[in-house]
Amino acid sequence: NLTDTLSLLNGALCAGLAKETEPARMFYLKLIKGNYKSPSVYSSLSDIYLKEKDTANAFKYIRMGLKEYPSNMSLFNSEINIYLTYNIVDKAMSNLNIAMEKDPANFTIPFALGTLYDNMANDTLRPVAQREESFKNAEKAYQKALTIKPDYADASFNMGALNLNKASEILIKANNLPPDATADFEKLK
């Protein structure tokens, strides 16, 4: 009356590699029901549901895993990725800030936070004050990523693009000035 958890785990892994989601799901569910102890079982099952766009079950199994393994950064990052996938910005930002405290050496966390702020800074539907605040926060986040990993090309590129976009906005304002507003044009230039 014993469950062969190693066979179930191998079956789940093989089914996953073969992109056979239904058998993989069945094996992972059996492992959870059999109280198999591994955070990866929860994240793998959540990934299956996430690929099927079943957010309720994706969140359900990540949260079950986090309840069982509250300090597991892999599960915590998986939850963040679900928020990012479905553009749940407030929750993603909150979790990214928590993740930076828990894993201060991980340069991808401030980069992801910078990307969220960057998107908000470029969202013309947002109020100007909020966009400007988002711009400053994006700069800070990218700079933090670069402080942790100075040769991080993605953060350098995004920091440059962020500033280039801001410069483009100023250039448009300058070019839309009337011809007699030379002092304002020079100031913007």
Give an overview of the whole structure:
By secondary structure, the chain is mostly helical. Helix content is 77%, strand content 0%. The chain is built from 10 helices and no strands. Helix 2 packs antiparallel against helix 3, helix 4 runs antiparallel to helix 5 and helix 7 packs parallel to helix 9. The N and C termini lie far apart (78 Å).
Spatial gap, N to C terminus: 78 Å
Characterize the overall form. Answer: elongated
Radius of gyration (CA) equals 23 Å
Please state the average pLDDT score: 91
What portion of the residues fall into strands of 2 or more residues? under 5%
Q: Uncertain runs with pLDDT below 50, 5 residues or more?
A: none
Strand-and-helix sequence, N→C? HHHHHHHHHH
The percent of residues in helical segments reads: over 70%
Please report the number of helical segments. Answer: 10
SSE class: mainly alpha
User: Total number of β-strand segments?
Assistant: 0
